[in-house]
Design goal:
Elements: H1 2-19, H2 35-50, H3 59-71, H4 78-112, E1 118-119, E2 125-130, E3 142-150, E4 156-159, H5 160-163, E5 167-170, H6 176-183, E6 190-195, E7 216-226
Antiparallel strand pairs: 1-2, 2-6, 3-4, 3-5, 3-7, 6-7
């Protein structure tokens, strides 16, 4: 358990160092950072790891524990501290997941009662906002789309509209809800897709932006089907759409 917790913390620092953009542009400017600035930066990095965990903290005790550990005067051993922290963290995540499951069930039941909503055998819910008259893609096609993805609280976690350009991806490379939903659409259509979490990112969520057991709401315009791409065709792997083991794990 200790090893898992420490590995997760180490992975966090690796991810930050790999993806972060330096605040100080000059090569040796980091040497000019004050102790206060560096200390605050460490606090921000650690806080970001637990921001959505549901844990409550006594900030004074967090600082005291940090200081005592550095000075070798901690009241507990490293093993005891890791066990307590890991246990509290796991419990908080489990409670949050249980809460999300209840919210998901309530939301899906309410949405399914709308007259304009169609529910498929898999549980995918969709509304036809605009009906196109083009072809429908198959499971192996590459499609061009515009879309916006939201959580049920209205938080936008991904949007091609915000980026100012459409996206292209293969339907055999995306989460199940996307693959099924896009195959229901004719080119020129605009649908609202509501995906249960089991057709999206399930009990794991994705990259912090999508919590566990989150149904996802997408408004999607199917612009075109690219049936026979050449070898140099670039397929854009968009966040919020790809499967868990894809590039989406790199984070938002």
């Amino acid at each position: 358990m200790k090893k898992m917790f420490l590995m997760a913390t180490a992975a966090m620092f690796c991810a930050v160092s790999a993806g972060a953009k330096p605040v100080y542009e000059e090569e040796d400017a980091h040497n000019a950072a004050t102790t206060e600035e560096i200390s605050y930066a460490f606090g921000v990095v650690l806080g970001s790891q637990f921001r959505d965990s549901g844990l409550s903290f006594n900030y004074e005790e967090v600082g005291k524990g940090f200081q005592d550990s550095l000075e070798g005067t901690a009241k507990t051993t490293d093993d005891e501290a890791v066990y307590l922290a890991q246990s509290a963290y796991t419990k908080a995540l489990e409670e949050k997941a249980a809460e999300n499951k209840v919210k998901e069930a309530e939301f899906l039941a309410e949405n399914a009662r709308k007259d304009t909503v169609i529910v498929t055998e898999s549980g995918l819910q969709y509304e036809v906002l605009e009906e196109g008259d083009g072809s429908k893609p198959s499971a192996d096609d590459i499609v061009q789309v515009n879309y916006e993805g939201k959580l049920i609280d209205g938080t936008v976690f991904d949007s091609s509209y915000e980026r100012g350009e459409s996206a292209e991806f293969s339907l055999n490379m995306v989460i199940e809800g996307w693959s099924e939903g896009l195959q229901l659409m004719n080119v020129g259509s605009k649908f609202r897709l509501v995906m249960p979490s089991n057709l999206a990112y399930g009990e794991s969520g994705a990259s912090g932006a999508i919590p566990p057991y989150s149904p996802l709401i997408f408004e999607v315009e199917l612009l075109a089907i690219i049936e026979q791409p050449s070898e140099d065709t670039e397929v854009v792997e968009e966040t919020g759409v790809l499967e868990e083991d894809s590039a989406y794990d790199e984070g938002l």
